[in-house]
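Re: the 369-residue chain
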Amino acid sequence: MAQTIIGLNDAKAVKRWSANLAVDTIRQGFFTGKMMGGEASMLPITVKTDLEAGAGDAVTYDLSVQLRQRPAVGSEKLAGREEALRFFSDKIVIDKMRHGVNTGDSMTQKRTLHQLRDVAKARLRDYWAALFDELFMVYLSGARGANDDFITGLDTSTDPTFSINAVTAPDTNHVMYGDGTTKATLTSAGKMTLALIEKVQAKAAMMTGIDKKGAKIQPIPVGGRPKYVLLLSPWARYDLKIASGTNTWLDIQKALTAAVGENSPIFSGALGDYSGTVLQEHSNVIRFTDYGAGSNVAAARCLFLGAQAGAIAFGMKGSGMRFDWFEEMDDRGEEPVVTTKTVFGIKKSRFNSQDYGLLAVDVAAAQPY
C-alpha cells in the first residue's frame, strides 16, 4: 500500500507546522490564552495587528482624553471657548526572536522524522508560551525581580530580550503597598488581604478624581458587568486564603460559579470572584527579596488589571502566520535541526508618562513552607 509522506523541507510541512505551533503556543500561554484579544474585546492585553500585513517595525496608538471644561451656561457665549481634543500616544516596537532544536546525530535517532517533529513542536510550544508569559509579567510589572526560574537574565539593561521595548517601572500613581507607602516601609505584615483588595478597587474607581493627569482604569466588560483581574503569586494567594478564613474563601469561590458571563476567558482557571475582581494565580508573578527598612522583606508584585493594560504586536509579513518553521540538516546531513522564528513586541501601556489600565500591588509574600 502506498504511503503519503511529507518529508523534510517540504513546503506543506513548513506551513502546517508553522500554523500548528502558532495555535498551540497562543492557547498554552496564560496571557495569550486568557487575557489577550482584539481592541473590541477590552481584555487586559490588546493585540495590535497593524504590522502583520504591512511594512514597519513599530506601531503607535493613541489614548483620547476625556473632555473636562465646564459648559457654557445661560447667555454665556461658547464661541472661542470650545475645548480642544487631547491625545496621548504610546508606541510598541517589534523585532524577530528565534529558537531551535537539534535532534542529535543519526546514532541517537530512535524516532522517525515525524515523531521528532511532534516532540520538537511540543517543546518549542512550551518554550514560546513560557517566554510570552514571562515577558508579559516583566513588562506589566515594570521589573524583572528575583525570579530564578525565568528564561531571561536578571538584568534587563544587558539582556537583549528587553532591548526591543524598554521595561518601565510603575509611576508613583500606579503602585500600592500592603502596608506603608514605599518599598522601604513595607513590612512583613503587609500581606495580601481582602481589605487591601477593597482599597485597590477604591483607588481604581477614583483615579481621575485624585489626579486629573491619570486615566481611569477601564473595567473588563463581562456579561454586561464590569470586572477586574487581580493576578496573585502562589504565596500571596496562600496569605489571602489563610487571612480570609475557610467560609469567606468558599464564598469567593461560589461567587465565581454564579458569575454572569462565566464563559469569559478571564474566568478560566480563576480562584474566585471577590466584589467584581476575578482572582487569578500565576507562579511568574514578580518576586523581590529586598523590601523593607532592612532590605530583607520578601515581596511580590501582584497586578490589578483592567482593559488594555498591555499590548502585543506581531509582524510576520508575507507568511500569513505568527511563527515560521524551518527544517534543515546540519553536519553534512547528519543532524536534523528545527528552527522557529516569530516577530513580535510586548509592552505595558503608558500614556503621558503614566501607566494605563493597571495597578502594581506590592505585598509581603514569603515562602510559607
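The helical segments are 11-28, 30-35, 50-53, 113-141, 194-205, 207-210, 234-244, 246-257.
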